[in-house]
Structures are given as C-alpha cells and as structure tokens.
Amino acid sequence: MYRIGIIEKIHESGIELLKNSKNFEHEIIEDVSQDNLIKVLPKFDGVTLRVAKLNSVILKNCKKLQVISRHGVGYDNVDLKYLKENNIKLLITATANAVSVAEHVMYMLLSLSKGINKYDQMVRSGEFRKAANKIETFELLNKEILILGFGRIGKILIKRCIGFEMNVNVYDPFVNKKTIEDCGGKKVEDLNLALSTADFLSIHMPLNKNTKNLIDLNKLKSMKNNIIIINTARGGIINEKDLDYALNNKIIFGAGLDVFEKEPIEMVNPLIKNKKVLLSPHSATFTKECTMRMGIQTVQNLIDFFENKLKKNMLVKL
Ligand SMILES: NC(=O)c1ccc[n+]([C@@H]2O[C@H](COP(=O)([O-])OP(=O)(O)OC[C@H]3O[C@@H](n4cnc5c(N)ncnc54)[C@H](O)[C@@H]3O)[C@@H](O)[C@H]2O)c1
What we know:
Strand content: 15-25%
Structural class: alpha/beta
Radius of gyration: 21 Å
Bound molecules: nicotinamide-adenine-dinucleotide
C-alpha cells in the first residue's frame, strides 16, 4: 500500500482515482506552513503539489518520499538540487493546461487592445455616447507578436495568433527553425532586435537564473511605445518595478500579468493601482476543463509511476 499526500486540494475526479485503487491510501493536507509540512510529510511515499514550496528543510525529513507529482508544469517551488541528489522523481501534468493558458493570453491581448475594462466602466457610469474615440484601441490584424519560449504553450498560442492574422516571431534558442516555421512562425536569433519591432510580446519560458529579470528597464525602453506585454509564465521574468515605471512613463502601452514576483501580490505593490496593467490571480488554468484535467493527470501520473507505467513526457529530467 502506497501512502499519498495531497498537498492542497485538487479536483475530486483526481481523488476518485485514488479511492478506486486498492494500492493507495491518501490524505489531504490543507495547512502548507513549513512547520506542518515537516510534521506530516515523512509518512508519504508520494505527494501531489500545487503552489506550496517544498524546500530542502522540509524534504530532508521525507525519508520515504519517492515522487512529487506537480499539479501544473512549472516547478520553481521545489528544490531541484535536493531531488536530484536524493533520487526523488518529479512529475508534471504535461498535456493538461496549455490550451487554457494560451486562451488566457488571447483574452488579455484582446482585452487590452480593445480597452474592454475602460469601456465597461464608461458604460456603467453613463458615458455611453462620450466613449467614441476616447480610448486608444487596436486591431490584431497584421501586427507583430513575439513569443518568448516555444514549448507546449507557445506552440498552442501561435495557432490562435495566426487565426487573427498576426505575424509571429519566436525567440527560443532551444527550438530549431524548421519546427517554428512548420507552425507558421519566424525564428528570431537576436532578442533585442525582435523586441524593438514587436507590437505584442507574450512570455512562455521557465523562470531560472537566465530568465530572471530578462525584461528590465533597458529592454522596455528599446520597445515600441504601443507594445502590449503579456506574462502568464512566471513572475520575476519581467522586473515589476521597471514595468510599473515603463507603463507610467508611456514607454510601453499596456501589460497583462497572471503571475507575480511574490504571490499573492502584495496590496502595496504599485501595479495594484496601475490602470494600464490587467491583472489576474495566477488563474490561467482555472477553467473548469483544465482544473479537472490537471487533477486527474496529477494523480494518474503518481499511479503510473508506482505501477511502472509512467509516460516519458510527464517526467522532469533533473
Ligand atoms: N499561468 C499559469 O497558470 C501557467 C500554467 C502553465 C505554465 N505556466 C508557465 O508557462 C511557462 C511555459 O510553460 P510550457 O508548458 O510551455 O513550458 P515548456 O517547458 O513546454 O516550454 C518552455 C520553453 O521555453 C524555452 N526556453 C527556456 N529558456 C529560454 C530562454 N532563456 N529564452 C527563450 N526560450 C527559453 C524552452 O526551450 C522551451 O521550449 C512556464 O514558465 C510555466 O511555469 C504558467
């Protein structure tokens, strides 16, 4: 019998998989404070993980732990070095969430280009007739979008952009020209040049030491004034202070953020009051369909791992 810790609730359909299998018993852990995790995790053979942090202080107490199954695809909340040194496997829900994230990008892109929030406010405050040409709005047709990172989400997003007849540039040093061209994009090698011509920028790379603060004030200043930047990847890839400055000083037009340097975002963060940024609470994957798929895939990966049936694309190479 394997003991599974569900760290933070997941969709009931995922839990059902465990209930229906005689080889597993599970416990849901709601209190994700370090003290509680140190106390409760040592008894588990495997755990599922949403956004709670698993650092080495917690993990060193988990002598039985063989596997962590992430509810998602990012894993910057886990101490990878510790996992590697201690042969703990890390799984991701590789095929569960790309569509929802790509749709969220399109929603932000359209919402900001069309001034939806501002128009909504004007209608509600009786300014229906005054609204004509008061707000700067844009079409997507023939506009240049730069996609940074061409993995699962980038590849789904490009189809949506092409559907709107946008011209798509892709910057991803690890993906070859043919793959990008077969999807209808153009591979760019020079990031600075690509940033200087883009009308839209969408970020889809991991947060790591190479990508932290990748978009800083210097890069923002090199962009067109009408650019709209969307970040649904990870907070910290764009420097938030620099972004706020760039928005306030008309260096760029607008931004949509689903992810933040610190989550939840602090209410004193100036972006909270900045009307040029559209915010969402790391909710790109909260659609009904995606939540269910992720819950099921998180648990199925664990079951497959213990039954030696794990699909290769679900395992992170550490
Ligand atoms: N907002 C959300 O809820 C949400 C949901 C899913 C994923 N994400 C985040 O979205 C990002 C992308 O997810 P994915 O599933 O497409 O990942 P992926 O691993 O499939 O793709 C990431 C791509 O980034 C590229 N890359 C790595 N370093 C790069 C660099 N320095 N410059 C350019 N490209 C680089 C890789 O080659 C890869 O093709 C991740 O950061 C992930 O954590 C967020």
